[in-house]
Design brief:
With 513 residues, this protein is α+β, with helices and mostly antiparallel strands. The chain is built from 15 helices and 25 strands. α7 runs antiparallel to α8 and α7 crosses α9. The longest helix has 39 residues. It is globular.
C-alpha cells in the first residue's frame, strides 16, 4: 500500500494552466516550419562540405573517346537508394568526342540507341526473324525475356481496361474477306505515298524522306540562316497536314535524293499497305491480312449489343495480330510488318457522350499539343483535362475519360510524364467522319512516336457495314411515349423523283476507338 496525501493538491495540478499551455503549444507549432528550414539548410551545407572534401581526393585526369564516366547532378534532395551524404550521380556515359579544356561530348542519340539495340539483341529480348537466312526487314522474333516483358504489358493492359472497365472481349481471325475491308474503305484508301529510286528501284516513304532531310539539316548544317531553320521547323510541325501535291513539291524544292545511292527519285504514287491473299483453293475469294482488330468488333456489333442486354453504353476489346506491308520498315520494333495490337471500341448514345467516371480523371494535368500550337510552331503545354473538355478542346466527356485512362496506364507502366504528350490531329489528318482525334506520343531516341490513338469516329464503320451487308447495325432506345421522326429516303421505283417518308425510333450509335 502506498500512502497518498489528499489534503493538498500536487505541484502538477497547482501549476497547470490550461490556457497558457494551449498558447505555448501553438507557439511551438509555429516555430516548427522554421526549425525544419534551418535543418534543411544545415543538411545542404553538410552535403556540399562532404562533396568538396571528396572531390579534393579525386585525381584529376583527362578522358579519351569510349571512356565511361559518371556525371554529378546538382546537390539536392536525394533519390531513394542514395546515401545521406553522397553526391547524386548519373550514368555511366561513354565519351564520344574530346572538345578540349576539360570539355567532352557525350553519346549521340544514334550511338545510345545502337548500344541499347545491341544489348537487347545480345540478351535475346528480340532478334531479327529468319536470321540464318539473312533476315527480312520488318520482321522480328521475341526471345525468352522479351516474351516475358510483352506478356506482362498485355496482362496489365487486360486488367486495366478489359476487367476494370467491364469490357466484352472478342477474338477474331487474322484473315479478313475483301468485302469487309472494301466496305470500311481500307481497300481504296489505306495507302502511303511512295517514291522510288529511278535507277535501283528501291522504294521509300515520301514523308519519311522529307522528315529525315529536315532533321539532318537542323542538326548538322551550322551555316543555315535563322529564316531557313524556321522554315524547316514549320515543315516538320505541319508534315502530316501536307497534301500529296505539297509533299511532292517540297521534295523537289529541297532536291532530296535517294539516301543510299544519291540517285534521283520518281514522282509520288500511292501504295496500299495491306497484305493480300486468297481464301480457299479456288482463289476466287480474295482477302487480306487484318491491319487492325477494330473491324472484327464492328461487324459483331449486333451480337455484342444483344449479349449486353440491348443496352448502351458498352465496350468491346480485342488483343490480336495486325499486318502492314510497310514501304520501308525501320526504327526497330516501331515500324514492322507484323505486330500485336490491343484495341477497344466504346459504343455510346450519340446524343449523350457523358461518362459516369469522368470526374475521376478530370483533375489530371499533363502535356497536350493542340493543333493551333502545332501550326504556329509552339511546344506542348500542361493543361488540366477537365479544362480541356469544358472549353471544347476535347470533344466530349467520354473521349476525355479515355484520354485520362490512357495517361494513367502509360505512367503506371513506367513512361516518364515529361516525355509523354497527347497530340491533337490536324484538320487534314482527320477523316471527314471523325469528330476528334488524339495520339499519345512518347519521346524516345527517334523523337516523338505515336503509341496510342484515341478517336471519336461517330458511327461511320457501322453505317458502312450496314449499307454493304444489308444488316442494320443499330441500337434501339425505348421512349416513355411515342415520338415521330420524319426522314427522307429515296425509293427504288421507276419514277426518278419519287421521295418516301418513313418514321424510325432507332439510330446508330457513336463509337470511340
Amino acid at each position: 500500500m502506498i500512502p497518498v496525501e489528499i489534503s493538498e493538491q500536487s505541484p502538477r495540478v497547482i501549476l497547470h494552466d490550461e490556457i497558457g499551455n494551449i498558447q505555448g503549444h501553438k507557439e511551438e507549432l509555429e516555430l516548427l516550419p522554421k526549425v525544419r528550414e534551418q535543418a534543411q539548410i544545415r543538411e545542404v551545407a553538410l552535403k556540399q562540405m562532404m562533396t568538396t572534401r571528396y572531390n579534393k581526393k579525386v585525381i584529376r585526369r583527362s578522358f579519351t573517346p569510349n571512356d565511361l564516366v559518371l556525371i554529378r547532378n546538382d546537390i539536392g534532395v536525394n533519390k531513394s537508394g542514395e546515401g545521406k551524404l553522397a553526391a547524386n550521380w548519373k550514368g555511366p556515359y561513354k565519351i564520344s568526342e574530346v572538345l578540349g579544356k576539360g570539355h567532352y561530348k557525350g553519346p549521340s542519340r544514334e550511338a545510345f540507341r545502337q548500344a541499347a539495340v545491341n544489348t537487347l539483341e545480345c540478351r535475346l529480348f528480340y532478334i531479327p526473324s529468319f536470321k540464318i537466312y539473312h533476315s527480312v526487314a520488318g520482321l522480328y522474333d521475341y526471345g525468352p525475356p522479351g516474351c516475358t516483358v510483352k506478356s506482362n504489358v498485355l496482362a496489365f493492359w487486360y486488367q486495366y481496361f478489359v476487367l476494370e472497365e467491364n469490357m466484352l472481349e472478342v477474338d477474331c481471325p487474322c484473315v479478313t474477306p475483301e468485302v469487309v475491308l472494301k466496305a470500311s474503305g481500307h481497300v481504296d484508301k489505306f495507302t502511303d505515298l511512295m517514291v522510288k529510286d529511278e535507277k535501283m528501284g528501291t522504294c521509300y516513304r515520301a514523308d519519311h524522306l522529307l522528315k529525315d532531310f529536315c532533321n539532318e539539316k537542323l542538326q548538322k548544317d551550322l551555316t543555315m540562316s535563322s529564316e531557313k531553320a524556321v522554315e524547316l521547323k514549320h515543315v516538320l510541325a505541319t508534315l502530316d497536314d501536307l497534301s500529296a501535291e505539297a509533299l511532292g513539291a517540297k521534295i523537289k524544292e529541297y532536291r532530296i535524293l535517294a539516301p543510299e545511292t544519291k540517285n534521283t527519285l520518281s514522282d509520288l504514287y500511292p501504295f496500299n499497305l495491306m497484305f493480300q491473299t486468297s481464301i480457299g483453293p479456288s482463289g476466287l475469294s480474295p482477302g487480306y491480312m487484318c491491319l487492325e482488330t477494330a473491324q472484327g468488333i464492328f461487324v459483331n456489333f449486333k451480337d455484342l449489343y444483344y449479349y449486353n442486354g440491348n443496352k448502351l453504353p458498352f465496350a468491346a476489346a480485342q488483343i490480336g495480330q495486325a499486318f502492314r506491308n510497310e514501304i520501308s520498315p525501320r526504327q526497330g520494333l516501331l515500324r514492322v510488318c507484323e505486330f500485336t495490337l490491343a484495341e477497344t471500341e466504346h459504343f455510346v448514345d450519340p446524343e449523350d457522350k457523358s461518362h459516369p467516371k469522368y470526374k475521376e480523371v478530370a483533375k489530371l494535368k499533363f502535356l497536350m499539343f493542340l493543333r493551333e500550337e502545332q501550326m504556329s510552331g509552339q511546344s506542348a503545354k500542361r493543361i488540366r483535362l477537365g479544362e480541356a473538355v469544358s472549353k471544347g478542346i476535347v470533344n466530349n466527356e467520354t473521349l476525355g475519360y479515355f484520354i485520362g485512362r490512357v495517361y494513367l496506364f502509360l505512367t503506371h507502366l513506367g513512361i516518364d510524364k515529361d516525355r509523354l504528350r497527347f497530340r491533337q490531329h490536324l484538320a487534314n489528318e482527320m477523316a471527314h467522319y471523325v469528330a476528334d482525334c488524339w495520339d499519345a506520343e512518347i519521346e524516345c531516341s527517334y523523337g516523338w512516336i505515336e503509341c496510342v490513338g484515341i478517336v471519336d469516329r461517330f458511327a461511320y464503320d457501322l453505317h458502312a457495314h450496314s449499307d454493304k451487308s444489308g444488316i442494320p447495325l443499330v441500337a434501339h432506345e425505348k421512349f416513355s411515349e411515342p415520338k415521330e421522326v420524319e426522314t427522307d429516303k429515296i425509293s427504288h421505283i421507276s419514277s426518278p423523283s419519287s421521295i418516301a417518308c418513313s418514321t424510325t425510333l432507332s439510330r446508330p450509335q457513336a463509337s470511340l476507338a
